[in-house]
Design brief:
19 strands; binds alpha-D-glucopyranose; binds adenosine-5'-diphosphate; 36% helix; Rossmann fold; single chain; 10-stranded mixed sheet
Length: 488
Amino acid sequence: MPKPSILFAASECAGFVKSGGLGDVVAALPVALHAAGYDVRLVIPRYDVIPIDQATRHPSPLGVPIGGGEAWCGVFESRIPGSEVPVYMLDHHSLFGRGYLYDPPGSHAPDNLARFAFLCRGALQLCRYLHWTPDIIHVHDWPTALIPVYLNTVERGGPLGQIATVMTIHNLAHQARFPARELAATHIPASEFRPDSLEDHGGVSPFKGGLYHATKLTTVSPTYAREIRTPEGGHGLDGIMRFRGGDLAGILNGIDEQVWNPETDPAIAAPFSANDLSGKAACKRALQREMGLAERDDVPLIGIVSRLSEQKGTDMILSALPRLLALDTQVVVLGSGDPGAEGYLHMRSHFGGNRFRAWIGFSEDLAHRIEAGSDLFLMPSRFEPCGLNQMYSQRYGTLPIVRATGGLDDTVEQFNPDTGEGTGFKLSHLTLDSLVDTVHWAVYTYRKKRPAFEAMQKRAMRKHFGWDVAAEHYGEVYDWAVRSRRGV
Ligand code: ADP
Ligand code: GLC
């Protein structure tokens, strides 16, 4: 079978706009697929925060049937930075020209069903406009989940009806649900408003509709693929996950090894590698200086880069903080999210002396410097579909301390003090004591078992996290989806 052609449809893409790991994946996986010989392209909204000076505008506008008639948008074309992968951006000012992606800070956009239904229908109109019928449309989480629904309903029997869909679940906890009365504006038939498709607790759930209608499903780690079939991990959708379990594959995310490379990273103070860690010591001192911490080599520096949320265990970190600092550590936090956590961290940072500093906001460069300059990276997530920071950490010789859940469990090997093997430290239950005890264990290893700690750093840095492995697995899923859609 020739390699299928693929349209990625997503709500964000790093290099243009990103709010989290989904954006990293959407920027990297298409590039790996392109390198493996696939015709792959991407469509995203053109939010006003995306600069368009490098993009070209298509001469004709695109008409998208939605609401009372047809809405028109512009189409910008660019490339995923550093690659040949085409990116189409749908430009509709009143829907996407709002300074935010999903919701304004601290509140909710009132019309997200209309906004993202527009993106979904617009992606299909784009195929018509380009005279290009991909074999696969690969969608990501709820914002593009209506595409499989459109293809199975309004497009069924038409020229696009043969397109197979693959839906990747990045995070089942982020479900959006909308009032039933808003469905009509999407032009999806009212008959889809039923409990095994779009209906969820009386509302419209695009996520659920996508899970039901996509030809094949994937999620971002094998362990999370198991967890979401259980009531504890399914966020209310475990029933449909079990129902579709035979069509679901767990494929570990990779990381962009060009962007996250301590040997070439332009954001960090000095380059380093597994063969020569001296640059890492310089990065640590530079980070301590930048954050106003005491410039000490001997103190274990613990880094955190995270959305501040219940998922990431932020509440537990805040509760544990005094006990973590009492272990004679330094802690730096880069994060944004929960306003209560932001306020607490801000205050604590102000009074944190030279041992604790928090930087509230989003900064890619500082994220790189924290990965490079820290000795340990703390990520005690309650659940974690995959997680990228623990992989970035390992690549920078910063040993992760994680909860053994989802992709964290799949990508970090527990330190074994008898054999010296492992690449990090894992706790199984997220309690205050187990969190503090595991950090204590890591700190003790740093101070008292230095050769073992350094051997672990080098082992972690030599691990391969490239996207090529995942791209191969996705290739198999695409073939599987095409065969299944065409009944061959
Ligand atoms: P999630 O997508 O659930 O937030 P991931 O670990 O998959 O978690 O990905 C998070 C991505 O967002 C990483 O690239 C991480 O470096 C980045 N990130 C998170 N918070 C910040 C921040 N405050 N500043 C810069 N980058 C951040
Ligand atoms: C989600 C998940 C995270 C995952 C990312 C990319 O944001 O929370 O675990 O790494 O998507 O797939």
